[in-house]
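User: Before I run my own analysis I want an independent prediction to cross-check against. Here's the chain; please return only the structure tokens and, at the end, one sentence I can use as a sanity check.
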Amino acid sequence: MKMDKISIGKNKKYITYFLYICIIVGIALHIVPFFYNRSLWLDEAMLANSICTRDIFNLVSKPLDWGQSAPIGYLYIIKIFTLLFGTSETVLRLWSLITSIASIGLVYLLLKDKVEKHFALGFTAFFSLLDMYIIYGNEFKQYMSENFFCLLVLLCYQRYKENKIELWKLILIYSIIIWFSFSAVFFISACMIIICLDLFKKALKNKSKSCIIKLCSCGIVLLSFLINYFVWLSKTSDNAGGSEYWDLVKFPLIPKSLSDIKLIYKMIMEFISYYQFKFIKVIICFLFLYYFITIIKNKKDESKIFIPYVLSLFLLAIASSLGFYPMQNRLLQPFTLMLLIFTALSCDSIKNIIVNNKNKIPHKFLMLFYIILFICLGFTGMQGCKNLFPSHVYKEQEQIAKNINYLNQNITENDMIYVYRFAIPVYLYETNYKITYSDFKKKVDNESIFLLPYVKGNTILGQNLEQFLYKESYSSEYEILEKEIKEDTDIISGYDSVYIFISHADEDLIQRLLLPLKEKGKIEIASQEYGSYLYHFTKK
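Assistant: Structure tokens:
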């Protein structure tokens, strides 16, 4: 028996070391791609337009350019970074890296006092190795910042329920976080509803003035949200690009047809899409449902955060059905992330049942949990480790540094530059905004329109050559616009020498653009990198 205990102790020690190594590897996987300094992709470049061309006093004076949206606090953090360190890709992505690593720490803090140490470490390691979160940690978008603040909201609520944070501190923290995260609003709302209901019950039962004062003080959080809404949120909801697409991904709160049920299924698949392997998705969903049933059966939320989470999902569904929050995976991922927390709690609950079983199930059976966890870590880690290789980090059709460098070294006064529509934002960024967004956009009958194709100096900014069809939810089907292709190629062929700068376009569309030009002159590839191209057109 003594030898058996020593054996168990040794196994646990080695397991602990292994999980620490996994977390360190996960952190390294977030850091290494940061220094590859890949080119901005389309949405990053669109967001950079507002950050880099507006001063700090006018940053949020009007909606962001290119139909982008981001929390006001996030925008000011990035703007301050750019004022201190410049506007390079690494600076723009620095906050994402910081919050991605900080989120790893918050996952552990949420779990460490609630589950066995190995489960806390194991699921923290699992999160740190997930490929999509590694990518978001190296992207100039607010996704990892959203994760950080949502985790912080629930951690603070957990500490409040354990009497480790006073209510006034929680109110202050929540009132600030509202300005830094869109999705955190759902978690904050859920937590404050529960707190207010609890205070209201106590006020009625005990007729306590202190409860009434506390209840009234909770209104500060609501006030903060309302100010934020009228100052910024209302502008971002009206400004969000692709409104036709978002209209197709509203949650059908009350399903009225078979198509609504199919849409709900699609949305569930979208919700868990970041867990790459099907067997991992099945395990996570099963364990989440098990924990849900356990909470109902025991009528007790051991984690302190499960009930707020479920309520936040309900609020999300209502907001989505009203058209305020589309059910898109990148916008849902703070909610998806929380499934890991409850999966860990579920595993710990099952482990306790096994350990306390009167039949004294041997500890070897308990090792089955660790083996499954290690398998999941192994598959996830293999996927995450791809980020150690530049070929995985540099995305097809988006890497343009080589093409820009060639253009800078070879262009002459007699050459024109044609920029494909979806390459415009990244081209403006790379050329330090020699042409600005406002140059080719103006007000006509109170509506902003693009003056495209737009010619200024030696630059031609192309127009949309394709139109998305929006036939069904999560569809990216489009049709090529022949009329617009002809208009753009007529302009290009009107000059003797034109460099054609193309990125963020598929091969079919590129060939449709080049085909008419081949009849009017000579086309050759001047430079190419990872599916983005710089062509040179010379007229016959």
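Sanity check: Confidence is low (pLDDT under 50) at residues 1-8.
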